[in-house]
C-alpha cells in the first residue's frame, strides 16, 4: 500500500499532539490511555522518515526494529539506574542524561535479543521434535 508523505506527516503530528495533550491534561488516566495515539504518531513518523530513503537511517531503523522488544523491556530499568547514578554523583537531571540511557539501552538490548533468539530457536526445535 502507498500513503503520501503529507498524510504520514498529518498522522504523526495529530498522534503525537494527542499523545502529549492526554499526558499533560488528563493526569494519570491520560498517561495510561495515551499509548494508542503515541503508537500512531511515532509509527507514522518512523514511516515518514523511512520513506525518505536515506540508507544509513533506514538501516538504523531496521536494526532498531529487530531489538525493539528488548529495548522496551530494559529501558525503564536503565533510565532508573542512570538517574540513581546521577543522583549519587550529585548531578542534576538534564536532557543530556538521555544520551547514556540510549547508549546503555542498546548495549543491553543487543545481547538480550540474542538470548531471546537463542531461547526461541531452542524451544521451536523441541516443539518440532515432539510433533
What would you say this structure looks like, in words?
The chain has 131 residues and is mainly α. Helices cover 85% and strands 0% of the residues. The chain has five helices and no strands. The longest helix has 34 residues, at 55-88.
> Helical stretch count?
5
What amount of the residues lies in strands?
under 5%
Indicate the radius of gyration in whole angstroms: 19 Å
Based on DSSP secondary structure assignment, what is the total number of beta strands? 0
The shape is globular
- What average pLDDT do the residues reach? 92
Low-confidence stretches: none
Please give the share of residues in helix.
over 70%
Head-to-tail CA distance between termini: 38 Å
Order of helices and strands: HHHHH
**Helix/strand structural class:** mainly alpha
- Main sheet attributes: strand count, strand direction, barrel closure: none
Helix-strand layout with pairing:
Blueprint: H1 5-25, H2 27-33, H3 35-51, H4 55-88, H5 98-130
Helix pairs in contact: 1-2, 1-3, 4-5
Task: Give a quick rundown of the structure.
The protein has 131 residues and is mainly alpha-helical.
Index terms:
single chain, 131 residues, mainly alpha, 5 helices, 0% strand, globular
